Model the fold of this input.
Amino acid sequence: MVVSIIDLAIKAVAVATIPHNRRPSSSVAWLLLIIITPLLGLVIFFVIGSPFVRGRRYAVQERADRAITSRAVSLPDVPDGADLPDGLDSVVRLNRQLTSMPMLGGTSHGLFGDYTASLAAMTAAVRAAQHRVHLEMYILARDAATEEFFEAMADAVRRGVVVRVLYDHIGSRKYPGFKQMNQTMTRDGIQWHQMMPIKPLQGRWRRPDLRNHRKLLVVDSRVAFMGSQNLIDSSYLMPANLRIGRHWLDLNIQLSGPIISSLEAVFALDWMSETGESLADEVAQPEVDEGDQPLQLVPSGPGYRTMPNLRLFTALIHRAQHRLSITSPYFVPEESLLEAVTTAAYRGVEVELFVSEGADQFVVQHAQASYYQGLLEAGVRIYLYPKPTVLHAKFFTVDDVAGVIGSSNMDYRSFGLDYEISLLGTAPEFVADLQRIADGYRRVCRELTAEEWSARSPGLRYVENVTRLMAALQ
Done:
């Protein structure tokens, strides 16, 4: 009798509280888990049920937003002289309203789709550093591929350059040489800190799957890199990957100009969140150069309650008139994004989606696959990048009017649980550069047909449905 009353009470409380400020799909997933296994479901909900940071981290986020707003208060939403395509001025205003960051000028110095070339360019930038190097990575490892970069940071310190490094604690700790990497960075005078550390014995605990997934490098307020590439060997050095020849294919962009002040502001925010130290005096004052390309950085993550990346993505996709090209390694879309993509296809927009034929994560692979049927029925063309390569680039283009590149996947994690950065560009050459990358992928990929997909086994369909429900638990 007592057990039945407790069981009923748990379910009654769950029904009344879980849907508050939560997406319908997420609410349904949580309620189903608690109804099936009340006690276990309740424990899991208390551990990972809140997708937001609270307390000190949220206070730091609010202070940073106020500081960014005050520094850029005199700047317009869009740089004077920038010729934005019709309808995009409202998207820029949306981004600024949600993140405090205006559109600024900047110059793209090219995209790096080659892993080795990207590492070499970042290493060269560090070797030329004179004042500061700020590195922020989700995964950081010292190995044969990254050794030269670490040596470049150590050389920079010896020249009197201040080198600061942030990396995600959980994201990096499982890779070979983790402890040695920390020891050598300390020995070399590099200032380093772990982001979002989970260390219960030191009183550092939060929802364990809230992570900082950003990837950026800023040198001397002069040159910057951002995109999808972590600082680790392209095989991630895992035995299973080495055994089957699996490597990651990424995409980074090199930037200069006023847009770097936005990247510096993001690094300063994350540095203060982990150390309590303010770098406000080192962040360049945002300014406008009419000769630069219009660019806007959109940070997002559990410190933001409005999911800025999701709103940017859906707003741009609804703007598509002719062509929409999406590359996302983990495509597990939230309801509004899925509707935007399929609606675009039903409107007659040519929609293409590039994903990996074989992902590196079982749950994500099958959760993603659960959406293929609806996408194919809407007319979306799905291109599979041949395994064992993991297509890890994250970008999309809308007609020839806008492009976005960054660290954010199009999945539940990137919208609500991970700190991300996305870069919006509207210059024709910016969009064309991204589209050339997608054109190259298309030549390598094979297209998934509706006939092939409908022939899959009932067992696979069952797994897809279960993992789709699991993906909604956030």
In short: The chain has three domains: 2-48, 55-296, 308-471. The chain has a mean pLDDT of 88. The first helix runs from residue 2 to 17.
